[in-house]
Each structure stands twice: as structure tokens, then as C-alpha cells.
Automatic annotation (TrEMBL):
SUPFAM superfamilies: Retrovirus capsid dimerization domain-like. This is Reverse transcriptase. Keywords: Nucleotidyltransferase, RNA-directed DNA polymerase, Transferase. Gene3D superfamilies: DNA breaking-rejoining enzymes. The lineage of its organism: Eukaryota, Metazoa, Spiralia, Lophotrochozoa, Mollusca. The keyword Disulfide bond does not apply. InterPro entries: SCAN_sf. It comes from Plakobranchus ocellatus.
Amino acid sequence: MKRYDLTEDGYHRKFRTDMFIVHIVMYLDRWIELSKSDKSYEKLKDLIVREQFVDACPADLATTLREKDLSTLEKEADLFLKARNRKLCDQPRKVFQGNARPRMDSVQSLEPEKKFNGGQCAREAKTSVADQRSCFKCKKSGYITQYCTALDSTTKKAGAGVVVKTTEVNTAEVRKPAEGPTMEVTDDLQSEVEDGMLKLASEKPVTVMKNCAALRDPEKTRSLGFPVLKGEIGGREVDVMRDTGCEGVVVRKQLVDVSQLTGECCLLLRIDNTALLAEKAVFSLRTPYLSGEVKSLCIPDASCDVIVGNVEGARSPEDPDMSVMVGAATTRAQAKR
């Protein structure tokens, strides 16, 4: 019977912890029966008070009392405390509710008993080992270098955190020409751009030009209805489109010399939800919408030679300066003579 916890103390614990009324009544009957107490009020009160006292007292005193006859509870408790020169009020006692009825492991401890299974021990051991790890880079504990946020782009692989259908957009700080495939972005990056910057998954911001109409398909570009006029770059006649939604200037890369490239890159977000890394270049141009030295993005698959966006000095689509091109035509005619 003791092996299966079918004793007075076993039924007492089940009575305290069970949540079903039928079981509680059955456990109470068996507890009273095995304690050899009458079912009178005084006897039941004495039984409950004794068990409550044993549950609340220090563990060593509770063990001693359970080894004795609980009918002489007060006498045995007094003898125990007197022999050890102790008082029950020497240590503060916690009041526990519900199923939790912890015991004191010693006079100095009031920590509740904990029951662990194999899975809990394994998880706690794993957590303990992880907490002891430290980062080689920043010397902080709790994680390893792979997850350190203090790493720069030279020691940690950076990604834009942008999921695309073909690959991932790398950081715009890389010094690579925009020769790779154009990627169609599945997320709406336009709404994530703040003050011309897009924050990568590595928490590093990159420069972004958004809402550009430099589409790959000329038919789609013409369907947008943007005005297109003639202009000039380095003595070559080019088509110039005025895009009122773009935030910069975009030029076909074939029209720019290598010496005019700055070595910097910028992430270009087009209105068809495609993303492309574009190199920056500085050159002079003459167009009805914008003339002088400009900083532009260069892409190989622009649908128009030059796209002028809303930059400083750009004229509105309804107010082009055609005299610029008249002067350019006169200069070319004089050069032919």
C-alpha cells in the first residue's frame, strides 16, 4: 500500500491537490478512515489543524512529528524545539495557496521543493551553457559572435532582409557595378523608405531612390504618358523624359564614361516593384528640363536615355526651356562648318 502512496499521508496530499469533487470526497473519507479519527466536528477539526501545522512547519520538525504519534502533536513539537533551542517564529513563514505546499529544507531556507523531469533538466542545462557563452567581438555574454549586433560589414555578412523571387538584395555599400539581374521584390519596400534611406536586416541604412519610371519595357514607359524631349550628353543626342515621381536623375549606362563613375552605388526601386543596384556617376548634360553637372544613377536597361526627376534646378514638364536645345543645335552647325 505504501508503494502506491495509499496511506494516510498519501490520501491527505491527494485530497489537497485534486480538482474533481468526487475524488476529493473519496480521498477525504479514506484520509479520515486511515487516521483512525471519528467523523465528529472536534475530531475533524483536530485532524485538519494537525495536518496544517505539519505542512507549514520546518521540514526537519515535520519529519520528526510524522515519525511520532500525531495525537501528541503539541507535546512532541515543544520537545523538538526545546531540544534545539529554537522557536517557530524564528524564521518568517510564507503562506502558499492552491497546490503548492513547499517545505523548508533547512532553518535558513524557505525555498519551495521543485520536481524536475529529464526534459526540464536538459533544457535548463542547455540554457545554462548558452548563458555562459560570450561574444569574441564585444565580450558580452549570452550569445556568440555570429549573433553580435556590433559587427560591421567587413566581419558580418549583411543582407537587405528583402525577399525576392530570384535572390537577395545585398547592401548598397558594395562596390559592384549594376550588371546583375533585376529582381522583383515581393515586399512593398517603397513604404519602408524614410528620408531616402532603407534599413537593412543588419540595421545598416542604405541610400535609396524610389518611384522611378526607368522601366525595362519601352512600351510600358510610353504608356505612362511622361513627356519626352531631345537633349544632349557629351555631344550625343539623347531622349530625355521628365518623371515627376522620381527623386533623382537616371541615365543609360552606355552613355557614361568609366571615368565619370564615382564608385558608389544606390538601391533603385522602380514603380513596377523591381529593385536594382545602380552605380553613381557625375557628368554634364543639356536638356530642356535640366542642364549642367548632375549626379545620376546609371542602369543598363533604362527604357529612356535620360530620366529627370524632382531634383534641384529641374523645370516642370509644362515649362521646358527649348532655347537650350536651339543653342546646342547652332553650336553643332558651327562645328560642322
